[in-house]
Design brief:
8 helices, 0% strand
């Protein structure tokens, strides 16, 4: 059966293959034209969306024991939003969207790989539901390739700005929609995990500390900041030698 569970053999195989594929794609495209790079990244963005749709459909067709209620699984979680937006991220040079994808979007995708809910784990390596892991890995790989291939240059200023955009979307869009769904259609609707951690390890830990809906996710804003700055720091380190040399005049 080869069940996929974080840190077991099949999970490690997926992560290694995805990471190796990202590195190979970088070296295959690094000397190609801008148009070719963007076309390939658009294809990867579409693959991300296709994988997201595929595992959602697989769960609808073959739901877990607790069910897969449609109104609780609309594309309104951050990772799913980023999967749907990934073709736009790849094609359009819109800095705010690319900053969200590279910073909180990529961090959320990678965090989900190690902190998936119990019902998202344990499926066969060859099950369509395994596209869950592929989609979340691509949520990080595509933005990383945008940076490594020179199509997007992240800045330190974009770190708090990108997190701020996520907060604005959460408060202005996600929270009202979730409250409306909970009031009129499905009281278990829980987008952005504002009301329940749903078994995700990181969120469960925060819930044990702060048992107040919505408020318990606020520490994530602090926890994600150093991780995003680390992303930017690694980018600066890797591109340091490629910066043009400017001679200094001597007297």
């Amino acid at each position: 059966m080869l069940p996929v569970i974080p840190f077991n053999g099949p999970w490690t195989l997926i992560v290694v293959v995805m990471a190796a594929g990202g590195v190979a794609t970088h070296f295959a495209l690094r000397n190609r034209s801008f148009a070719v790079k963007r076309a390939w990244l658009l294809a990867l963005g579409c693959l991300t969306l296709a994988c997201s749709i595929a595992f959602h459909v697989a769960y609808i067709v073959s739901p877990p024991p607790g069910g897969f209620p449609l109104l609780q699984n609309l594309p309104l979680h951050l990772c799913t939003i980023m999967s749907w937006a990934m073709p736009l991220v790849a094609w359009f040079d819109w800095r705010p969207l690319r900053a969200v994808a590279f910073y909180p979007g990529a961090v959320a995708g990678l965090a989900t790989l190690v902190s998936a809910a119990p019902w998202e784990q344990g499926h066969s390596l060859f099950d369509v539901k395994t596209c869950f892991w592929v989609a979340h890995a691509l949520n990080a790989i595509v933005p990383f390739l945008l940076v490594s291939l020179g199509l997007y240059r992240p800045t330190a200023r974009q770190v708090p700005a990108s997190i701020g955009w996520v907060v604005v979307v959460g408060l202005v869009v996600i929270l009202p929609v979730t409250l409306a769904l909970r009031a009129w259609f499905d009281p278990a609707a829980n987008y952005f995990y504002l009301f329940d951690p749903e078994g995700a390890d990181i969120l469960v830990l925060l819930w044990e500390w702060i048992r107040v809906p919505i408020l318990y996710v606020l520490p994530l804003l602090v926890l994600v900041l150093p991780v995003c700055y680390l992303e930017w720091g690694v980018y600066r380190l890797l591109t340091w030698r490629s910066r043009p040399f400017v001679p200094v005049a001597t007297a």
